[in-house]
Design a protein that fits this description.
The protein has 433 residues and is of the alpha+beta class. It has helices at 2-11, 46-55, 59-65, 107-119, 173-179, 251-259, 264-272, 319-337, 342-367, 376-393, 397-407, 419-432; strands at residues 17-21, 70-71, 79-83, 86-87, 102-103, 124-128, 130-138, 141-149, 155-159, 163-165, 187-202, 212-215, 223-229, 234-241, 274-290, 302-304, 310-311. This is 2-polyprenyl-6-methoxyphenol hydroxylase-like oxidoreductase.
């Protein structure tokens, strides 16, 4: 997704763009090996949908025309959200439903729509089934990339004025920089030890009212669950384990684990649903942010985007949104600076998009990770306020809307502790006592 969106932006400013992809790309909507996360809970946040619509006008309507369900905030009962042991309000109305509208397209459908829109551009060529071996350089300027076919031993060079690494978490750019006399970027990292177990189901129409259900892990219970409706009457169920929690290896045990977390009426629907394909597992050890924006020197004409810059804990569903926000940062850097000074300008703008997501993730993960020493006190204070907030939001549509805006990347988490909202949370606590 980050590579496609970068190609889209570059096509607005360049004569020709070549996308080099290691997978053989499907002609239809299908999973592919290069996106293992696509087999698990996957969602484009409201803020990401806005950024994607800005980059590709009409994409929301196209996704809906292909069957992607819409999670409409005008009906709060469509979502079952259990945060810190409290279910958020499922009745009443919100003041701005369009701001937190979500289109629940599966990753294969979303990527297919974006890929075909990019492929249709007259100055874009997609070269799939090929690996980028390494960038080629002359002095301090990148001149292209050396490419190898996955079917033969033949290698060749693709010349370019700008090269963008969108190869994901395993990107080899830090090693390339070091080998050519540049420093490696500083890596900010923290352990997540996340594990997923996911199964796709087909649910007969009308059996399930909810389009989304999330039960978050807590400090006392290192497991959670998520359920999202997708196109063609399918739903994806994901069990979540944090802190190295081991998850079941077979579907009956996964359903048994889900039954301990999800409400009974949802579990009964899953029990009657038709499993599609196999049960899939995935582990995610750590979140990493490579601080390219801090480097004092960098090859001219070289950029890095997406997970190759920053890979977030995927449980919060922010990866594709970050890719769309970085693409808009690239568009702005091109408009302001042009190609000669593109790298520095882009990395600075991208860092401003990444930083709020990174800090929010760290805080959320801190809340559910066992700790010792002095850090126990801020953790207890944060969790106490979060629990009180969620308890108040369970019958307060306004507090629920504020939380959903934060969850969907529309507002900062600091807004949940504003004086007005803190007073409502306190008043609710006093009434309960």
């Amino acid at each position: 997704m980050s590579g496609l969106l970068a190609a889209l932006v570059m096509a607005e400013a360049c004569d020709a763009v070549t996308v080099i992809e290691r997978d053989a790309l499907p002609d239809k909507v299908a999973q592919r090996p290069g996106v293992p996360q696509g087999l698990h809970l996957h969602m484009l946040l409201s803020s990401g949908l806005r950024a994607l619509e800005d980059l590709l006008p009409g994409v929301s309507a196209e996704l809906r025309s292909k069957g992607a369900p819409v999670l409409d905030a005008r009906d709060l009962s469509q979502a079952y959200l259990d945060i810190n042991g409290r279910v958020l309000c499922r009745h009443g109305t919100v003041s701005d439903p369009e701001a937190i509208r979500v289109i629940l397209a599966s990753r294969p459908l979303l990527e297919s729509v974006v890929r075909e829109r990019v492929r249709s551009l007259s100055n874009v060529t997609i070269l799939d089934g090929h690996d980028v071996i390494e960038p080629t350089v002359r002095g301090r300027t990148v001149t292209g990339v050396k490419v190898g076919s996955r079917c033969t031993v033949h290698a060749f060079e693709v010349p370019a004025d700008v090269v963008i690494d969108a190869s994901g978490r395993s990107a080899r750019t830090p090693a390339f920089l070091e080998a050519h006399g540049y420093g490696r970027p500083v890596e900010q990292t923290y352990r997540v030890q996340l594990s997923y177990a996911s199964q796709l189901f087909r649910v007969p129409g009308g059996m399930l009212h909810e389009k989304a259900a999330v039960i978050s892990p807590t400090l006392q219970r290192p497991t959670g669950a998520g359920l999202l409706a997708n196109e063609n009457g399918t739903v994806i169920l994901t069990l979540i384990g944090i802190g190295g929690q081991r998850l079941p290896a077979d579907l009956p045990s996964v359903l048994e684990g889900a039954a301990r977390l999800l409400p009974p009426h949802i579990c009964s629907v899953l029990g009657a649903a038709e499993p599609i394909g196999e049960l899939h597992h995935r582990r995610y050890p750590a979140s990493v942010w490579r601080r390219y924006d801090k480097l004092t020197s960098f090859p001219v004409g070289f950029l890095v985007v997406g997970d190759a810059v920053c890979s977030f804990n995927p449980v919060y569903g922010q990866g594709m949104t970050s890719a769309a926000l970085q693409a808009r940062a690239l568009r702005k850097a091109l408009a302001d600076n042009g190609a000669p000074d593109l790298s520095g300008a882009y990395f600075r703008k991208a860092a401003r998009q990444i930083a709020p997501i990174w800090h929010a993730n760290r805080l959320n993960d801190f809340a559910v990770t066992p700790t010792t020493g002095w850090t126990m006190w801020p953790q207890r204070a944060f969790n106490a306020y979060t629990t009180a907030y969620m308890a108040a939001a369970s019958d307060d549509a306004g507090l629920t809307e504020a939380f959903l805006r934060v969850l969907q990347g529309m507002d900062s988490g600091l807004t949940l502790a504003s004086p007005v909202r803190a007073a409502r949370v306190l008043a609710h606590s006093v009434r309960r006592r």
